[in-house]
Design a protein that fits this description.
The chain is of the alpha/beta class. It has ten helices and 13 strands. It folds into three domains: about 80 residues, Nucleic acid-binding proteins (OB fold (Dihydrolipoamide Acetyltransferase, E2P), Beta Barrel), CATH 2.40.50; about 160 residues, 3-Layer(aba) Sandwich (Rossmann fold); about 70 residues, Ribonucleotide Reductase Protein R1, domain 1 (Orthogonal Bundle). Its main location: cytoplasm.
């Protein structure tokens, strides 16, 4: 049986990248799950297990972010002894990547080639403003369209009111209250998993991501566990997993994230805090630090109540974090450049 890969997102962007790599013994496939040295991939002939070829391992030795991950389109090779190997990773259209905890501020790819990144934040316990802002910055940086999903809306007396409050934290981002048991908001989520489109879910453990995956897939494909008595989530997904959806499209589940480090691009941060960026453009001085400078539009907005102190402090904290990572990244690149120079 031959499967139509276009229903999983294969299009001319990936096809043009594949053509120079095409041989009689190769084919294109999409990564469903990547383990250590082995990928589960879905191609025209169905689901296969493929080991990483030496070229892929060599290419990723200097940058682990080049390793294949869930959502990637890859070139696989079929060998006479029935082995299947991943020969190369095709260029990514979008990439969801977070900073790792190591000192050189390298990146960890969480997912690739998604059209929408849904930040999933539960209404119970109370949603966390700062976590939503941080995750939205990550979603914006991915290049995909961001979406804020407020899950477990059946646990809240007035979910629409909370959605209205969060609309102010995400200028221009759709906010979707969702409840799987009550069946509310599901149509808005399903339309983002149309044939050829991929939805990635990003959020903490216990946010309800696996429940949403099962709903979209029409079956129990991901384990679900109840949150603890203290309201904290239990990790149910320890790996990234791309799940094809009946009728076409795919949903990408990511592990629950306790902490998310931002990389040094800063573009996602500017879009998440577009309200503050717009105010900063009105300051008297272009290099205004929004402290004691005269004519500061940001500080004026705090004084008149149109901008909360909490949101300003959240922006400052993330701005500082991005600046620190930018400095560390520059040091890492200079060090790598010195190592490559001939002695």
């Amino acid at each position: 049986m031959t499967h139509d890969l276009s229903r999983l997102g294969w299009d001319e962007f990936f096809a043009s990248a594949y053509r120079p790599r095409s041989r009689t013994d190769t084919a294109a496939a999409r990564v469903l799950r990547a383990d250590r040295g082995v990928c589960t991939v879905f191609g025209a002939s169905g689901t296969l297990r493929a080991t990483l070829a030496g070229g892929v391992l060599l290419d990723s030795s200097g940058d682990p972010a080049r390793l294949p991950c869930a959502g990637d389109w890859v070139v696989i090779r079929h060998w006479p002894d029935r082995r299947v190997t991943v020969e190369s990773v095709l260029p990514r259209r979008t990439t969801l990547i977070r900073r790792t905890a190591d000192k050189d501020s390298s990146g960890q790819v969480l997912a690739a080639n998604m059209d929408t990144v849904a930040v999933v934040e539960p209404m119970h316990p109370a949603p966390d403003d700062a976590r939503v802002e941080r995750l939205l910055s990550l979603a914006f940086d991915s290049g995909a369209a961001p979406l804020l999903v407020l899950s477990k809306s059946d646990t809240c007396a007035d979910p629409e009111a909370i959605a209205g409050q969060f609309a102010g934290l995400a200028p221009g981002v759709p906010v979707l209250p969702v409840s799987v048991p009550a069946g509310t908001g599901l149509a808005g989520l399903r339309e983002r998993v149309a044939p050829g489109r991929t939805l990635a879910l990003l959020g903490r453990s216990g946010a309800g991501k696996s429940t949403l995956v099962n709903m979209l897939a029409g079956g129990d494909v991901m384990p679900v566990r109840q949150i603890r008595a203290d309201g904290k989530g239990r990790h149910t997904t320890a790996y990234r997993n791309l799940v094809p959806v009946p009728g076409g499209g795919a949903v990408l589940d990511t592990p629950g994230i306790r902490g998310v480090g931002l990389l040094d691009t800063g573009s996602g941060l500017d879009r998440t805090f577009a309200d503050i960026a717009d105010l900063a453009a009105l300051c008297r001085f272009a290099d205004c630090r929004h402290g004691a400078e005269p004519g500061c539009a940001v500080r004026a907005a705090v004084h008149d109540g149109s901008l909360s102190v909490r949101r300003l402090e959240s922006w400052r904290k993330l701005q500082h974090e991005v600046a620190v990572q930018s400095s560390r990244q520059a040091v890492r690149l200079r060090s790598a450049d010195r190592r490559q120079r001939p002695s």
